[in-house]
Every structure is written in C-alpha cells, then in structure tokens.
Amino acid sequence: MNAPALTLTLKKPLERVVAHGHPWIYRDALEAFDIPPGKIVTVLDRQGRFLARGLVERGPIGVRVFVRGDVPLDDALIHRRLDDAFALRTSHWPAETTALRLVHGEGDLLPGVVVDLYGAYAVMRFDGQAIQRFRGILVARLATLLPKLGVETLLERSGRGETRRVQALWGALPDGVVEVREHGMRMPVDLVAGQKTGLFLDHRDARLRVRSLADQKRVVNLFGYTGGFSMAAGLGGAAYVETVDVAPAAIALADDGWARNGLDPTKHCAHTSDVERFLNTAKERSTFWDLVVADPPSFAPSEAAKRGALKAYRALHTACLSRVTDGGLYLGASCSSHVHRDDFDTTIREAAHAAKVSVQVLERGGAGFDHPVPIGFLEGAYLKSTLCRVVRLR
Asked: Three-state DSSP class for 202?
C-alpha cells in the first residue's frame, strides 16, 4: 500500500507567483513543517486546493517546484526534462563551439541540476540537497545522452572553497588543462580547480560581441579570469589587450589562451593585480583604453548585501568610465541575482555623473540561449551586461 502523499499549505498570498512560474517557495511562506530534504510534497493554496508539487529543500527555500499540474513527480518526468534540455541545445548549437550548458536547473524545469559540456568532458553540479533524491536516475540518463555528444567522462563537482571536490562518475579525471572551442576561439579550461564548473559559459554572446568591436582598439579586461574577453578582443584585431585578475592561476591560463589562438605575444599583457589598485595606478599615469570590460564576481551574495553591492558597482563603474577614451566603449556586467537590471543601470547612470561623462547605452545583454529563464523567475535573469559609448563632457 502506498504511503499517503505529504502536503504543505501556503500561508502567504503567493498563489499567483507560483502559478506564473517561480520555482521556489520559501519556507516562511508555508505553514510550519518538519520534513527532510528530498521528500516529494504537494503544496496546497490557502484554500486547500492543489497548487504545485516539488521537493523539500533545506534552508530558506522550503520547496523547489517541479510541476504545477497534478501529475507524478517521478523518474519518467526527470527523463523527459533531461531529454527536452538536450533537444533545445542540439537545435540551437552555435557553430565551432564545444563548450555549452546542457542543463540549467530551474530554467530547464530541473531545479538544482547543472550540467556543462567541455568537449569530451561533462561536469554535473547540484544546487541544494533536494535533487539528490533523483541523483541515480539523472546519472543513468546522462550516461545514455552524453556519449551521443562525444562525451567520454562525466565529472561531478561538489562543495565550495576548501571543501570543493571533483570526482569522475565515469571516465577519468583530465590530466591537466582541457581545450574547448567557442565560435572557433580556443579556450583553455581547468575542470578540477577552475571557478564554477570551469568557465563562465554564460558570457559566450558577450565575448563574441567584444570580438566584433575590438578592431584596432586598446582593450582592458578587468576581473579577466582566464582571459575569455581578452582572447576575443585579440581575435577581433585589437591593437593591444591587457588582462587583470588577482589569481595567478587564472592569469597563467589567460596567457596560455592567447598563445593557443596564435595571437601576437607583444600585443597582450596580463597583470596579477587587484582591480582597484590597477585602476588607481592607471589614473595616476593618465592611462586610457578604447574598450573597458568589467565583469566582477558577485557583489551581492544575499539580499542583505544588496545595498553595499550597489555602492561597490557605482565605485567600479566610476573608476572604469574615467579611463575610457572619448567615444570609447564600456561593457559593465553583474552576475548578482539580487541586483536587478534597473538597479544595475542606475549605478552606471550615477557613475557617469560622478565621472563627468555622458553615457549612451548601445546594448543590454544577458546569458545565452543555453541559460533559459522561466518568465516568472526574476532571480533567474542573474546576468546583466550593459554596453555603453562614453562621451567626455566638453
């Protein structure tokens, strides 16, 4: 005999938010409960009617929503969602590209699951504990789907910082740096020690845009990590490119990537430096660039950090805008989900005033097609970039 279904009841008026596609129901929006992570629950609205079905999570997110119809949350559903995610990628695959996000968690209706492709390697990462319930079925299905894309090894990344761990679920750990292609650009990636799953795949479109804009320009790539924007600028014909990052290992890969693309070594300089210190020195030396790219790490890891983050973005933009040549370009980006698009653009507007320049917004961008966002999930549009033309006030 089947055990009775577990149910939770909404206590806050969030029925419309859930119905419109938000994949999280916070714990404080539900009547009190004590259910371990990974249990399947049916969520009822305040009138006791069916609202959604999902998995109990640990922490502030009480339930990760998988379905909004009264259908089973089972292995067959997980199969279908994985198949749909792969079908989306194969139907829109960019030319000469071997690095792609194959599964984007909530965006692919698989909350908590990330799978990234790096040539013959795939990297899986779980967000939270709830999805561990389906770990076995996910790994088994991936073992069927991934080899069709030429994948020979599935890695799993877990933990953060000193607790980070990378293991091969099948295949073997890479022996050193792996090379992938992005629109033909050769990119070295460290799948064991690199940030995220190895690269920031969400900036693929922005890197291609920089490549199209860089001809004969002096370019600086701040918070450059492994130099993706730098290589793109070099391939786009930049006159000179500088890469700045505080991590020596990242700077080494930026130099490596420049060489792998056959670019002139005299046209690239990589700096292991704090960005603020680097920009202060540039100001003292009256150094300017025709194109400045600033893609910092998240300044707002939580809602409580938002106020400080906005201040930090304003300061960064001000320093950057003051170093752009008259008529030059600035590409500012934020990966902070708690800083919304309007907030981010406001920090650029205020920075322009402080830097005494006029800013013309040319384009606003975000993550690529392989990072889909449910229409009702504002937090899912975490990546924001704004491309500006900078005109000095006369």
From this structure: helix
